[in-house]
Batch of 4 targets.
Target 1
Amino acid sequence: MGNVYFWIIYAVIIGSAIIALEATSLLWAAISFVVLLSEIALVYFGLNMPVLGGVQLAIYAGGVTILVLFAIMMIGESYKKPGGKAVKAIVLSLLLLILGTSFSFLSAIDTFPFKTFSTETLGTVFVEKYSFFTIVLGFIVSALLYMANAIITKKREAK
Amino acid sequence: MLLEADVHAYLFLSFSLLAVGVYGLLSRRSVIRMLFAIEMIINAANLNLAVFTAQRNVDGEIFAFFTIGLAALEAAVGLAIVIVFYKRFGEVIPSKIRNLRW
Amino acid sequence: MEKLVWITYLTIGIFFAGSILAFLVGKFTDRWNSFWVAALTGLTGFVLTCYVAFNLGEHPIVHKFNWFTFGSFKVPLGVYVDSLAVVMALIATGIGFLDIVFSKGYMEDDESPHRYYFEKLFFIGSMVGLVFVTNLVGLYIFWEGVGLCSYLLIGYWYWKKSAAEAALKAFVMTRFGDVFMLAGIIVAWVLLGTIDFQELNALALAGAFSVKLGLLISILIFIGAVGKSAQFPLFPWLLDAMEGPTTVSALIHAATMVNAGVYLVARMFPFFDYSHALIVVGFVGALSAFIAATGALAHTEIKKILAFSTMEHLALMFVALGVGSAAAGIFHLMNHAIFKALLFLAAGAVIHMAHHQKDAFKLGGLYKYMPQTALLFLVGILALAGVPPFNGFFSKDWILAATYEYGNPVIFGLTFVAAVLCVAYGFRLWFVVFTGEPSEYSKKAREAYPVMLVPLYVLAVLTILVPFFKEKIIHFLFGEIHEPFFINLLVATLTVMFILFGIVFLIYYKRVISTAKFLANPLGKAINDFLYNGWFVDAVIKWICRHVFYGSIAKAVEWVDTHVVDGAVNGTARLSLACWDRCRKIQTGDVVDYLTYFVAGVLVLTLIILFV
């Protein structure tokens, strides 16, 4: 079992995933989706795979999200409650979860430890080597969040 | 801050993500949400690849690259379809469009 | 390959090639050009057959090859030409040629002579093939070939309903016999391992198989021969076959094709002899001869009287074979072919000139208008009746003597009555047609064309010439054989014939005795009807077909067809329709539903992989 940091990341991932599906505003759902993908990138960094994490950030959190935003722009976001045949879906997904997890425990997957990779080291590396990119990325993300919020509030007011 | 977990924990993470994705895929009525769900499922699979690569030092990582590339393409095409879909039918609710059923 | 073998194959092939050529020539140039092609082909074929006949030495011409092979199963084919085959081929090609020439006159009003000559040459080719082949499979092929031509030519005037029906009847009735024949061939092939005539006969002479098996095969093959040679009970088709052109009746239904059955029995004579099947042949022949002779006595149509007469003479040949005298049978076959072709062609001339009036009693006094034809017809009648010195006398007397020597009273009695009745119905026909008061039809008639008379003269001369060469012919065919001779039988036959001639002369020429009183009597009328309709065999066959085959078996088969076979087919459709109707309900067209099925399927598959 993982330590507390792992479970925090777990909670963030699953939470953002659920928000991405359940949020009333499509735009907030997209932002939540970006958070989900970035957290997964973080997991990759944690698994000592910085290149994969970078690609995940660039392609998913960058490219795909922009596409999604463009699509939302073209369609026009909706605030309808996204309903559906929830019962069947919940049953099936829970079945999958239980089945998968129980088999991961029951099967003969050995649990020898990973090479530990500290996120502190990662942070040091980011600051030392990629600080410029990190700063630019940080600005971009914050700008994105701000603009999204601004747009949504404006739309709300217009309505 | 050490991210310490064994393989079961990671698998639990990826299965949870898969379950959420499947739930979304089956319950949402909007195509865009369904695309989100599909991406979640793909990411769950990618996570598995990464986890086992890290654990056993095998070359599973490269598949994760391919998968990311393919998923990006799929998202691009899928979203293009969504836009055409919207122009054609004025909505993006797939359950209401049954043209291919005779 | 030997030269004679080539010529043998050429003789068969030239007729088939000529038939197609005649059709094409007639189709693309003037229609009657096909006549010249046909006549040339017929003459060439006849000359080639003569060449084979004169060069045929002590040994027969034999050539055998494998037609096709399927694994270890081989189908042999080949030619075997001995004196018997060559005589049959001479009859077929010679009379065929004369018939082709005669047709030029008879078919003068015809619209499609190229079709006629195509079918005729095809027939002659099949007939030559039939007598030349070496085994039963080859014989069966050509046997069906002549049957097909017979069908086509009977139905030549296909727009006439009666002709089309007669053709169908002939086809079905002969085919009925052929089915049994095919069964016989298969039994022989499977159980005896050979279908070659010479090998079968050699096996029979060596006694290599049981008599019961031989009897089974013989009877099955004999049923085919009965169908083809129009014997009891499969003869009604021959009477209906007279719907075709008279030239066709002369060639196919008198001189050649109907002899195929006799030829087959003669060819397998040692086999039949060993199997004790000859007694059956004899009885069937005697009964058929009696039925036919009495039927001819009562009928009124020229061609049907001649058809009954053909059946009677074929029956006499079967009797001769049945009592063990193959030589008499084959000699009679040859003589019968000549004089019956003469009679039929002369009858054709009469019918053609009298504007297709076939009822003898509506003609009369024709002697005045067509004397040459009348005299030639008389020659034919004399030969038919067996009056010396015409050829019919020699062979018929021989058959009677052989039957007398055989000693079975039933066969002898029936045969004797049938043989002497020839004179009665023959002269009755001649007197009715050629003497007496001319009717309106007769007054329009005139003498036949030279192209029709020449073949008749050739045949008439042959009927007189053949007896002079009797010894040579018999020697050529069979070598030295014993010929029975009983002077008292001869005297008795001639006396009875003379008395019968006297009675017929009084009734039909002098007309001092009237048949009207006899016909007025209900019993007399019943007897007349009975004989006229060929002992109602046709009606019985129809009744059996309608009530036994159609009423029960065909109905049962139909029931099975509609309820089981069709039921299965329709049931499959209904079942799949029902399945579809239920399955289509899961095809909602909603992609989310499909995704649900997909995920559920993945789950199930995972469970199966993990637990099973």
Note: The two ends of chain B are 59 Å apart (CA to CA).
Target 2
Amino acid sequence: MHAPMELVCPAGSLPALRAAVDNGADCVYLGLRDNTNARNFAGLNLDPTAAQEGVRYAHRRGVKVLLAINTFPQPGAWQRWTSAVDTAVQLEFDAIIIADAGLMRYAARKYPELRLHLSVQGSATNYEAINFYRTRFNVQRAVLPRVLSVSQVEQVIRNTEAEIEVFGFGSLCVMVEGRCALSAFATGHSPNTTGACSPAAAVRWQEKPDGLESRLNGILIDKYREGERAAYPTLCKGRFKVAGETYYAIEEPASLNALTLLPELVRIGVRAVKIEGRQRSPAYVATVTRIWRQALDACARRGEAFSPAPAWMAALRGVSEGQQDTLGAYYRPWK
Amino acid sequence: MKLALGPLLYYWPRQEVLLFYDAVALSPVDVVYLGEVVCSRRHELRLPDWQALARMLADAGKEVVLSTQALIESESDLKTLRRIVGNGEFLVEANDMGAVHLLAGSTPFVAGTHLNVYNAETLALLIELGARRWVPPVEMPQAMLQALLREAPRPPECEVFAYGRMPLAFSARCFTARRYNLQKDSCAFRCLDHREGLLLKTREGQPFLALNGTQTQSAAVCNLLAHLPELGQSGVGIMRISPQARHTLDVVALFREGIDNASRLDDAARRIQALVPDVACDGFWRGRPGMEAGASS
């Protein structure tokens, strides 16, 4: 039997952290208030004082806390990233979620006891890549990009000693994380360097006679007729024209929901399941964490006979992007 | 300054590919990258075919590098990767950390543009492991590149993506198949019909991206010819031209002219504008949104 699967939940603020802890997270992850993390949005994330309070709150309740340092350090600012690593150690975080190989070397040399989790931003989609980080920096866990089918995830697990964490729920990156320059191309804000994709500062909503337009740095991402539900203009989730047809050319606004796959993920040996959404509200975190906690416990009791309660699925759909969900790349035909 | 021809990112019929590289053999490029970087389903040329082309180009005096696939998902992708790594004949461009893992310490390699290298520490690590050339991410601005190379203890040869539609993202999903309501596993190889990808426009007709199977490119063509002097001053030793469906070797000739003769650079930069298929851009290099174009591009 495998060790139980951990539930890893997002915290963009202290209230969100408490919501995750109180509703059954095994781990919460958060970022500091700068571009050392990939959700570098105004008003989000925790300063070291709040982070310390968060760590105490979680630890008193037996919950682990992970610090996301998952952007890439840049020339002239190397120390901002190393001091984020130092902060993680000083504040007694249980692990850091890290993407940059050079920074991993710093962490592994200076703090050999510090647990390293390879961030999804590290773009390791195969076991040879994961084993690179495992062999050189003793990475304990790798978070897989949302590109693999379930059988490909299983193949990875069979060929590495690193624990494997996968995404279970939340906004879906259609592109391999860490290797997407679309936002940088359109807005100048890069997930890899500034820690932001399609940032709100670049968004303009305009009411026009023929509908509501959403623009990102001037680029028309979508247009809505009366009665159509408008979505946040993440640039890969707009409607565009390709060879005469207008459609969601890259992806619909939808969230990943892998709840139905839970028994399979347990069977193949996935060690942790991640909930996306540091940019979402404490209420979102509470709802999603509670449902996934119930599901994980039910799955542990019932094994392969597990099936998610319709009420859970409905509640999750209610907090999904565009109120739609998908199995994403876990399900081959999605590709 | 040397001139490189990047790997062919599109899927062209076999005969066209062979004819293209026959012409490349006679062109004034110094380095040629070969191999399938985008999609493992593409098989008009298989690895032995690429190796045969590599030998032909090497005989013609080119330095040849075999490029590895950027997004490696399956065991069969890994099998191909291992064969490229162990080819024993040509330098390898690693486009994934799995490739670096297999090459590290034993075989010198090119650290490809799809590895995330944004700082001198990570670059130094790759150099220790055997990287002897580095191609930065397309989004890296001049200021960052210059600072990084200054901080690097032993800066390697640096090659910058200087012409072509830029590779911006990869996905497990095939967007070309999606356009035709096909699944990737039964895509009918529609990429063969789109020699420079499928143009994606906004609903008001602005060219924005190009769909090239699982890869998403810029619709605008990156053109850094006019920036040649700054590239040299920043420590760049090679400019990469990415094969396009049209005028690639004319573009090569104009880059060569600008490189060999500084007094003709302005003229070459003016003439190249007639060869750019849609719009040009140079925003990334100037530290701006990538799609922007400065006066000189």
Note: The radius of gyration of chain B is 18 Å.
Target 3
Amino acid sequence: MSKSNFTRRGLLKTGAVTGAGLALPTYLAAQESYLNAPTGASVTLGFNVPQSGPYADEGADELRAYELAVEHLNGTGADNGMLETFSSKALEGNGILGKEVKYVTGDTQTKSDAARASAKSMIEKDGAIMITGGSSSGVAVAVQALCQEAGVIFMAGLTHSNDTTGKDRKANGFRHFFNSYMSGAALAPVLAANYGTDRKAYHLTADYNWGYTTEEAVRASTEAMGWETVAAVKTPLTQTDFSSYIAPVLQSGADTLVLNHYGGNMVNSLTNAVQFGLRDKQVNGKDFQIVVPLYSRLMAKGAGANVKGIFGSTNWHWSLQDDASKAFVKSFGTKYGFPPSQAAHTCYVQAILYADAVQRAGSFAPCAVVEALEGFEFDGMGNGPTLYRAEDHQCFKDVLVVKGKENPTSEFDLLEIVEVTPMEQVMYAPDHPQMGGADASLGSCNNGA
Amino acid sequence: MLGLGKKDFTLLLIVAVMTLLAPLLLNPFPESSGLAQFNAGYPDLMQRFVIFGIFAIGFNILFGLTGYLSFGHAAFLGVGSYGAMWMMKLVSLNVIPAIIMAIIVAGIFSLAVGYISLRRSGIYFSILTLAFAQMSYALAYSVLTPLTGGETGLQIKSSDTPLFSNVADGDIGRANLFGMDMRASHEVAMGDWLFTFNAGYYIAGVVMLIAFYLSIRIFRSPFGTMLRAVKSNQTRMYYTGLNARPYTLAAFVISGMYAGLAGGLLVAMDTQVGPERMFWTASGEVVLMTILGGAGTLIGPVLGSGAIKYMENILSKINKDILHEWFAFLPAGLDDFIVAIVYPFVGKGWHLTLGLIFMGVVIFLPGGLVQGGQKIGGLFRRKKASDNDSDKSTQSTPAE
């Protein structure tokens, strides 16, 4: 027996429910049109840093910076760090778009495979919407490519090779750190002013990708102002004793040694060079000089007194006296008891910039974030006015030329700032030959779903 | 069945079922519980389980049967990866030619390395293979940069246009099997559980089953017996007029091809290759996997690789915050104390845990995890009638 009673009220009710039901899937679809869209009250970020291997110290410092950034984003920290000085005021200290920031960590081991495995597990298992960190260009390029394929944002940590935003640039990847080209362009005028324009340089270059791009950049910039490159010798990455490479330097008639080395390599090669008495020598009637294109505080610490008076470049240094740097150093120092390294700075800034871009875009969708970051100009993050260039996703800002301090007052006070090279001087065209030329392209952004 | 004894067939069947159901078995904890941290059922890790399983199975054919300890097997994995990568970049994005290329390249390379290294045995053999692997690593890292991409490795780029695959301009080519994307996944939510069935994983899984089947056949063949004879007393073999070299070389090449297959699959699942894949620690890892699981047994290497990859990917991700969350129910002081004790063993300290487990296994279970399983099995079986004497003839022997 069936009984049907169509009433006006009943029909309206059914209609409303059906309407809501029909509307729901489209609403959900709009929400889930990108990978790992945060659904609950929190959003997960992936901090992929080297916790073991040669750059473990830098990785540890990066992680400290990220934890600090998360506190500041969630408004749970002792202060608000650089959020106070940041020119964009979109962030409110209540997470990102009102969602609490949570994070997962992973160990890149400074190996591309391990870094990708770790990033993949963050994306596939933990639902991370953004991956950041790393302390080597090999890892940065590998993880950046992965994030492009998977459809999440990658905010590079410490990576200095031109390739990251040069020939291997990707639409979903962004780099705040400076690069080899900028180091060369910033150093050259300072070197010319201090050492003259008629020097003969001898390069020792770490035999891998970063070494090549750095050598190329420094050679191009110094040769442009009149230096001559006598020889460029590649040294194996695993080399620990550089005596056999240093000995021929004096016979070559060169009066300047450029060490395109990083990390432990640089510590060893510089120590060897100084022990050989290179710096006390006179060649061609000039004092022999040594140059280290990329400096970091952790390296300066390793090389000890040998760094005194040696020029190099760096992305940021804690002794900068602008409000933003002071706020960051204070915030970091209060929490951890010592000043942050440049790796910590760039990672902190990357996390904040990502959060701000999401907030401004009003969405976590990678393509929306890319749009918000491209061509974004900001200030108050410790490097002065900065531009995130749309063509290659590289940050353009002033570059610091530093030298080893003659009279350090503490184990952190090892470098002094010689000059701040203005942004215009380190600017280059997006299709610069050192950056992969006209072939390099970002491709299109990937939302992942 | 399939030319296998009853016991071996059962083993193959069990492995097949486990492989098939891995997405369910590896995700035993509900998503919202704290234990979800221990779930391993996501595509990338499952793929690694089976791929490194293949690698270890192949290594076991050499080490488990002939006793020759190669410390350079990662070189074949790496060479295979580079071969597969170039195949994808130049010829076709289909994974099958890439994998075949990986096996061929690794086979040729292992023939060359094996021909030289097998002139010596024991520690000298190990050192020779280690030297070859380190040499390949150094070459890939710097000297051969145009071919290997150096430190940054090789990836498929938007500028790559493989001969037989149509990639739209500006698009990045994807590895596929006749159009099926390796990354395609089907997610099934059941209550609070989320299971991911991934295309790439099942393809790798099928390949692993084939590799496993072949390894059983090799173990049970006259050839396998010959290899065991090499292990037990090579001198005696020579005295009886047999030349062991061709056998060891064949075993070396077969296991090199297994490594190449694993390397090719790695590229097929995740289109990227870097020189670290050939670093000596990677070679050491496969030795650990095999010994941890049980050298000379059939299933041991697979178990060992699973255990190591699990720890590398799951334990290493437990950080201080997660520990604090777990122990939050404890009083404030005690909570910190427990975290301080546990923390060195997880997160970046996962190597420490691995080391302890490895020591434990080597000291108490020289036959690896398989021996552990047999011991536990024995505890239950002893109560029954001792009718398992017949087992011993077919039972796989633990390492010496």
Note: The CA atoms of residues 64 and 296 of chain B lie 4 Å apart.
Target 4
Amino acid sequence: MQLKKTMVWDLPTRLFHWVLVLAFALAWATYKDSRHLGLHTIAGYTFFGLLMFRLVWGVVGSHYARFREFSYAPKEVLAYLRSLLGSGIKHYIGHNPAGAWAIFVLITFGLLLSVSGVIVLGGEEQQGLLAGKISFDQSALFRTLHELIAWTMVGLVAVHVTGIIVESLLHRENLIGSMFRGTKWVSGESANVTSHRLVASVLTVSFLTWSAVSLNGYISATEAQPYQPFKGPVLAMNELWNEECGACHLAFHPNLLPARSWQRLFEQQADHFQEDLMLDEATFNELTNYALMNSAEEKKTEAAWKIDRTVKKSETPLQITALVYWKDKHSDIADETWQREKIQSKTNCGACHYDAELSTFQDSAMRIPK
Amino acid sequence: MKKFFLMMTTVVCGLIINLSANAGSVESLQSDYQVQGAGPFSAAAGETMWQKEYLDEKSGKQRSCQTCHGKDLTRSGKHARTGKVIEPLARSVNSERLTEVKFMKKWLKRNCKWTVGRECSAQEKGDFLEYLKGQ
């Protein structure tokens, strides 16, 4: 039988595929370290945008890219899978039934992953499209979902890649290469597919523009002026507080401890970590009032929310560094690191957190100095 | 022209009043101490006490003014516990020093308590200020 080199995957479909792979890989590489949340978010939006494009392209794209072309009934999938074990495997030019289902499931989970990501960003970080529309508490469930979906995606990718390799071996054709070149060796009749260079160009230009815009902050950042992709909420500040507390240490914002802790600290003002604060009555009242009105219970920031939910109700911690949440967040910092010239003390929050004075403690606003 | 002179006179007078108020604040605090029966003040006595070490019984450590302010008053010091930078005390390099009575009173009170273990007498505080004025 005569084999003919035939275009199967148009250029936009191939671009979609590989940039999606890159976006997913970037999101995966940046999810653990919260310092990289900015990049993770950019990867996520890219991923989401690509999927949206694919939904449209699945309707108006070229023959083999159309959803209609690879919508197989479950029984066809089973028949195909059964045929893999025997002889007489049916050869499909586009997606085979099992692969097609993998694509639909991947796209569905990809969309769920994107949507849950935007919800977590809006709730846990109060950033992005849904900032202010979702509470910290509501976001907790979506955080779990986002993680579960992501792991499922990894599993699905593994199935997808395994399927590709198995089929490549069985049919003695390089399917991975086809996703780069767009062509397959086809015998007999096949649909006419063009490259769709115009759509591919628009897609490429959009992608490059978006990359330049979203990554600009990272590229133009310097050591002295690091990029801070997210700004936290503006918290209530008190001049007297900043002056009194800030004389000896960072004026830790009241949102970093529960109200009962502040109450206790002010009651013990004559022995404040071996110092007598000697606050006069007016100062004492103003500071206490400010602390109690703006404590962790107000949940104005992610840190405050997490401090509030992790402090045992039976405990009254008097130091921020004694908080379970604080310890957990700083557990991977070596003793040697704390000794560094630019850090020196665990109370020197500003050494690593650029927004320490604003007390917003954004995930991405920190770097450990050398 | 008349207007201009009037304006300049106002500005110059304002400056003089402002400067003398600043220069005077440490003296006015000292004269308060004199009213309380202290004086005359000695920079040498202030310096001796400034450098003297006092044992803190709770921590077992020696404390002096230099613990936090450092040996060289023209350079910044460091809070003993938190490590926070304390701006230089010498007014030859830090013009904000010794300009605000309320501020001086507060820290003379608190820091004597931490360092010496008790509040300082009017005489001692006046001596400290006399010493610091020359820095």
Note: Chain B touches chain A through twelve residues (CB under 8 Å).
